[in-house]
């Protein structure tokens, strides 16, 4: 049983779950601070549903990348860092088992969404449904956001890990919408978009070989690195806007310090770098997102209790 759980945790990449749970927590806390609405049981069910949806997204992406030949190309390409679980390319799990676990996670997410829609209102299904469609068609035909290289995948990530979970969690608690929820979704959503964008640097050569036209493939390393810097600035700039607009208290500006270690990594990169040189960029992107998210959560809790 212990071994099965370890395999599931690796196959679903459960370690990255905070990038979904943090925006959900922010949305619920927004309802607590702005409207005085907070139901712990609704929050827990939202966390379960959104968490299952995120793990489904991870696994369905692996499944379609395997079908599309992207994972095999990453495995065979020299110097490329593969970021999938390897369970399909290595034969650890059969396609049937992998697919069964994947769709079971979707089932948990769907049931959670239906229950929440009955309690809080039908728009919950809209939020969840849009997230589910984006998760599936990120690499699945005929849309395949992640393969088109025109910024579609970045927009999809901003929606999936920013706007939809924050606004959706806020709606679950309050049964209404507020422009502050949209503003609150931008810092964490843009930082998560930055994670996924920097993630492409690790295997862009294999993506190119497999026909996966990420922006890194289309633009090349130099232009993509410049865009990565601008995305970092935009994410933290949106945090300042949130404070100025009243969506966050002034002490949420402490989150700006989380940009420092990540910004320092850019100075160590050249115009062209081997894949392993991007590991610090990827790692610090994740740390910056999680640390900033925790600071924003703490700021809202303090504001709500004062």
Question: Can you put this structure into words, describing what you see?
Answer:
The chain has helices at 2-11, 18-35, 40-68, 70-76, 95-120, 123-137, 152-174, 179-199, 204-210, 215-219, 221-245, 259-266, 279-305. The protein has 306 residues and is mainly alpha-helical. The model has no long low-confidence stretch (mean pLDDT 87).
Runs in which pLDDT lies below 50 for 5 or more consecutive residues are none
**SSE succession:** HHHHHHHHHHHHH
**How many strand elements?**
0
Q: How much helicity do the residues have? A: over 70%
Report the C-alpha radius of gyration, rounded.
19 Å
Roughly how many Å apart are the termini?
45 Å
Shape: globular
The percent range for strand residues is under 5%
Helix count from the secondary structure assignment: 13
Largest sheet: none
**Could you report the average pLDDT, rounded to the nearest whole number?**
87
**Derived structural class:** mainly alpha
């Amino acid at each position: 049983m212990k071994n099965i759980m370890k395999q599931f945790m690796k196959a679903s990449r459960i370690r990255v779950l905070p990038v979904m749970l943090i925006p959900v927590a922010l949305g619920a806390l927004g309802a607590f601070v702005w409207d005085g609405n907070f139901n712990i049981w609704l929050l827990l069910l939202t966390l379960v549903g959104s968490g299952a949806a995120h793990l489904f997204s991870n696994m369905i992406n692996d499944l379609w990348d395997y079908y599309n030949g992207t994972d095999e190309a990453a495995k065979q390409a020299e110097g490329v860092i593969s970021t999938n679980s390897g369970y399909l390319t290595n034969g650890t799990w059969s396609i049937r088992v992998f697919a069964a676990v994947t769709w079971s996670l979707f089932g948990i997410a769907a049931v959670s969404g239906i229950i929440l829609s009955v309690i809080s209102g039908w728009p919950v299904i809209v939020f969840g449904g849009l997230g589910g469609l984006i998760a599936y068609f990120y690499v699945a035909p005929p849309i395949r956001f992640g393969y088109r290289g025109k910024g579609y995948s970045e927009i999809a990530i901003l929606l999936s890990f920013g706007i939809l979970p924050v606004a959706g969690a806020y709606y679950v608690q309050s049964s209404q919408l507020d422009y502050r929820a949209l503003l609150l979704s931008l810092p964490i959503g843009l930082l998560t978009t930055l994670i996924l964008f920097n993630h492409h640097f690790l295997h862009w050569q294999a993506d190119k070989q497999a026909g996966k036209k990420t922006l890194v493939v289309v633009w090349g390393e130099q232009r993509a690195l410049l865009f990565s810097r601008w995305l970092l600035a935009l994410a933290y700039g949106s945090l300042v806007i949130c404070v100025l607009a009243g969506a966050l208290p002034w002490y949420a500006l402490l989150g700006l310090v989380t940009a420092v270690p990540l910004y320092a990594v850019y100075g160590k990169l050249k115009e062209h770098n081997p894949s392993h040189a991007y590991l610090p960029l990827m790692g610090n992107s994740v740390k910056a997102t999680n640390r900033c998210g925790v600071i924003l959560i703490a700021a809202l809790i303090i504001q709500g209790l004062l």
